[in-house]
Amino acid sequence: MNELLSVFSWLLLAGGLLFFFAGSVGLLRFPDTLSRLHALTKADTLGLGLVVAGLALRATSLLEVAQMLLIWLLVLASGATACQLLARQAGEEGEDD
């Protein structure tokens, strides 16, 4: 059973890294500001969630899991707020690039 949890943890961690990579590629490749923000925030949010899930399977106590979940929730809130502010600023300036 322990080996199965370890394999599943590695799969979640690899999936999270894949989403981080996809978000970074989207940031570099998409043409306008709003597309870049969308790619980055969605992929990074899901990537961090998968990384937290993978690390939670390796945690030794519920306190560690609770701390990781709290960090993930704070990143969710701050990412959404920052994305909204950046998109609003880009819209006011009429930025297409």
From TrEMBL:
In terms of InterPro entries, this protein maps to:
PhaG_MnhG_YufB
**Keywords, in A-Z order:** Membrane, Transmembrane, Transmembrane helix
Organism encoding this protein = Stutzerimonas frequens
Highest taxon above the source species:
Bacteria
Pfam families membership: PhaG_MnhG_YufB
Molecular-function annotations in GO: sodium:proton antiporter activity
Q: What is this protein called?
A: Monovalent cation/H(+) antiporter subunit G
Bilayer-crossing regions? 39-57, 69-87
